[in-house]
Amino acid sequence: MRYCLQCGHEAERKIPATDNIPRLVCPNCHYIHYENPKVICGSLVVHKNRVLLCRRAIEPQYGLWTLPAGFMENGETMAEGAARESYEEAEAVVINPHLYCLYDIPDIGQIYSIYLTELKDGAYGIGSESLDCALFTEEDIPWNNIAFEAVRRTLKSYFEDRQQFDSLDKFPIHQDYIGKDQSIKRY
Amino acid sequence: MRYCLQCGHEAERKIPATDNIPRLVCPNCHYIHYENPKVICGSLVVHKNRVLLCRRAIEPQYGLWTLPAGFMENGETMAEGAARESYEEAEAVVINPHLYCLYDIPDIGQIYSIYLTELKDGAYGIGSESLDCALFTEEDIPWNNIAFEAVRRTLKSYFEDRQQFDSLDKFPIHQDYIGKDQSIKRY
Question: A3 and B2 in contact by Cβ < 8 A?
Fold first, then answer.
């Protein structure tokens, strides 16, 4: 059972008159509760030859490594969201953001937008949602302990593009689809 | 006053313990109601030398011209959303989608994603949310009667890029910010 946000009455799932998709609708005040995909904003933070990863202190995927990323908030741009998450999860101030990866994950109603950024002054810490944060070279990336497929693909693309392009602002935008089984197994 | 979706109790706006932004929180069942930006998916549908516009039969901006576009739904990709909207608003089957424009509109909590597509077999009609649909050459675009700034910018970019690139799949992705006064005046 679900209730109406507007009036508190019991709501029902039905297709509104002007629509073709079932929605949660209130039979009392007629308010329609739309549910739409959510946007994740994240940052691939680069410093010299290394990239910044955070070890998750929260579920899902507790203990695995990820990029600083989280749900976009109202009132911010995607780049601002990526910068905010970098600070919250790794106390990293990031500069020169460029949109880098954009993933559709329709099975869970999400879009991932990852910005390529640079770490200001090489400074970072450990945010409250992280067990640890560290800069990794390509050789040291913990590939068997990456939290999400979107993170793995972003890292793969980055190390490939780095062979081909001599500055971050020349990196192309990668757009891709991620299916249902998007997270790797935890070890 | 707002009510809890989960239990129907009166909800209150406060900052949850593990958060730093005010949310609608239920004091009874502790459910947190997150509100996040919404994604608009749209299509710049090209056929030969012309582009497809729809005259809006709904508010806001009733009577003005727009691209087929609307809120992205759960379970679809951005490109699928752009194709769905093209069919709903203009009975247009579109092929060869490429992400073309991506706009942050933080003041209204929206992201606009516009795909460059091609009209299959040149066929289209008039969807239920449109008063009219038509293919326009650059000279015939009704610039003084365009519904939204995102639509205007997309059209401007398209006619500029067309001078420079000889096929649609070479067009670059344009990313931009649109401020508060995003709609033009209605005539």
Answer: no
